[in-house]
Design goal:
disordered N terminus; mainly beta
């Protein structure tokens, strides 16, 4: 018996009503429609961009992949002019501080709060490992309009990816 899959698309509609201070006339009612595609947490990964302020040192990141002796890969995110600040995540942006985002083959895997991360399994074949530097408020750090990130390609053969 074959299973049938049913997918339902939905949209959320939000009405915004402004309540005036006492003694003032009510404003004309306005409403906004937010579709699922625009809502946070829908699987997309788009952030605001935050330009490094003029006169501040520009952070850099260099991704280095090290094959683990037993299994998997050890990612090293070598940073300059940047301080990992996990205690300040979700707060106002500060130049040269924040966290990183790790992507494997275009999919966000996790936040990085330090320079090292262990990747247990990668898909067979070519894998694109990207690390971007992000401000405390999750905005992507940029310099001259360019994202501050680095990508490494890791080739994985079937034999190297099996459990020991």
């Amino acid at each position: 018996m074959k299973a049938k899959h049913c997918f339902v698309a939905a949209a959320t509609f939000v009405s915004i009503i402004a309540i005036p201070p006492r003694g003032q006339a009510p404003p004309i009612a306005k409403s906004a429609t937010i579709t699922v595609a625009e809502m946070p947490g829908n699987g997309s990964h788009e952030h605001q961009k935050m330009e490094v302020p003029e006169g501040q040192p520009v952070p850099t990141v260099d991704v280095v992949m090290h094959k683990d002796a037993k299994k998997g890969w050890n990612l090293e995110a070598k940073v300059t002019n940047f301080e990992f600040a996990p205690d300040k995540v979700n707060t106002v942006a500060e130049p040269g501080k924040g966290h990183a985002h790790l992507f494997v083959n275009g999919k966000k895997i996790t936040r990085l709060y330090s320079s090292w991360y262990y990747l247990e399994n990668l898909d067979r074949g070519e894998n694109r490992i990207k690390v971007s530097l992000n401000a405390n408020n999750h905005a992507d750090w940029t310099s001259n309009g360019k994202l501050i990130e680095d990508t490494e390609i890791v080739q994985v053969s079937e034999a190297l990816n099996k459990h020991h």
